[in-house]
Write a structure and sequence with these properties.
The chain contains 10 helices and 5 strands. The protein is of the alpha/beta class. The chain starts with a helix and ends with a helix. It binds CO-5-methoxybenzimidazolylcobamide.
């Protein structure tokens, strides 16, 4: 396709199925403006924000991840893809967070020290907000001191940690062990997530639960908060 043809290309002329394929391609090629445009088009066609997120954006990023793993894409290209993904996520964020209800709990969440992956953590934050949680997202590359400071400042119900690298996931144990040493571990529900983790790992580091994805994170957060509150209520009687 020539540059002129590319400029004249009208995303709105595509069917939903074709547009999904196109978003996957545009994410792959790091085309942020096109991903934003397509996200808006889907919403205009009546798609819910969660469907746009899962079918178009998350699936597109999964494809990027496969080619990154296989050495077909490299860091600069994946950074562009991540930037394009974030463009779409920024549009969906307020829609996913639109509940208007009182917060059902407070969460401090961050990616651990040495790790700069933030797309999954941001997605979890968005979905938690959408489910009615107040979320304090402390970003990436967090040493234990930053987690402690955020817990002290915000007094959340839940601490969430994310790690995407096998080299950084052991740092979760450093944070949890520090909480134990300071007598703070039982004050918080600790949830962990990230592609290389599993339930066994979560148990081994002393977390309360492993969350495979954002939807599981929301369900787990709700269930563990409810369990904790009813245990506290039962103890008070
Ligand atoms: Co990175 N990277 N990366 N990378 N990167 C991975 C993770 C990798 C699996 C790619 C691969 O080889 N296939 C691989 C890790 C291998 C390993 O350790 N086993 C890898 C590597 C090796 C690296 C570098 C070392 C590459 C290099 O420099 N040579 C480097 C490390 C940098 C560092 O952190 N120190 C690096 C860099 C980068 C970029 C900067 C280029 C970019 C990050 C950009 C950004 O985040 N702003 C990047 C990306 C984008 C990826 C892949 C392609 C995609 C990650 C992603 O965003 N997924 C990734 C491959 C992959 O995972 N398939 C890869 C989409 C996201 C929606 O899913 O993050 O899994 P995910 O989040 C899910 C769940 O895991 C869960 O819910 C989320 C939503 O459903 N979840 C939680 C996540 N966190 C949670 C926290 C919770 C609960 C649930 O708390 C309660």
């Amino acid at each position: 396709m020539s540059d002129d043809q590319a400029e004249a290309f009208d995303l709105n002329s595509l069917s939903n199925e074709e547009l999904v394929e196109q978003v996957h391609d545009d994410l792959y090629n790091g085309l942020r403006d096109e991903v934003i445009e397509a996200t808006n088009l889907f919403l205009g066609r009546g798609w819910g924000p969660d469907k746009v997120l899962n079918d178009a954006l998350v699936e597109g990023m999964r494809i990027v991840g496969i080619d990154f793993r296989d050495g077909i894409l490299f860091v600069p290209e994946v950074l562009l893809a991540a930037n394009a993904m974030k463009g779409g996520m920024e549009i969906l964020r307020p829609l996913l967070a639109e509940t208007g209800a009182e917060p059902i709990g407070k969460v401090v969440i961050g990616t651990v020290k040495g790790d700069i992956h933030d797309i999954g953590k941001n997605l979890v934050s968005m979905m938690l907000e959408g489910a009615g949680f107040e979320v304090i997202n402390i970003g990436i590359n967090n040493p234990v001191e930053k987690y402690l400071a955020a817990l002290e400042e915000h007094q959340p119900d839940i601490l969430g940690m994310s790690a995407l690298l096998t080299t950084t996931m052991p740092y979760m144990k450093v944070v949890i062990d520090t909480l134990k040493q300071k007598g703070l571990r039982d004050k918080y529900i600790v949830l962990v997530g990230g592609a290389p983790l599993n339930e066994e790992f979560a148990k081994a580091v002393g977390a309360d639960a492993y969350c495979r994805d954002a939807a599981v994170a929301v369900e787990t957060a709700k269930a563990l908060i409810a369990a904790r509150r009813s245990a506290i209520a039962a103890a008070a009687h």
